[in-house]
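Progress note, project year one: complex with zinc ion.
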Amino acid sequence: MADSGEERRAVIRQRLADGSLPRSRPSILAPANAVVQPMLTVGVGDGQPCSACGEPIGPQEIQLAYRYSATTRVVVHQGCDEMWREEVTRPRLT
Ligand SMILES: [Zn+2]
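Model obtained:
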């Protein structure tokens, strides 16, 4: 499998551009006394595709699951999470 960082970054940029990957991380808006699930869960992959690069996240890899709402989750590889963060914090060049 080609694991060129730049290829993966290009996919992440494309997904940010077309809206399939959010440009922001979930924010915590729940009231203090609400029962809140953690907005970020870190664990091993279970084979579902990464929201950033599209490759399955296997059990030998670390996945980060961001919870935006009861029905919306974004699950990414640990490495993709770093690239995602870099891409959304990078100054826009256009
Ligand atoms: Zn990924």
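The longest helix spans residues 5-18.
The chain has one domain: 5-25+38-89.
No further modelling is planned for this target in the current period.
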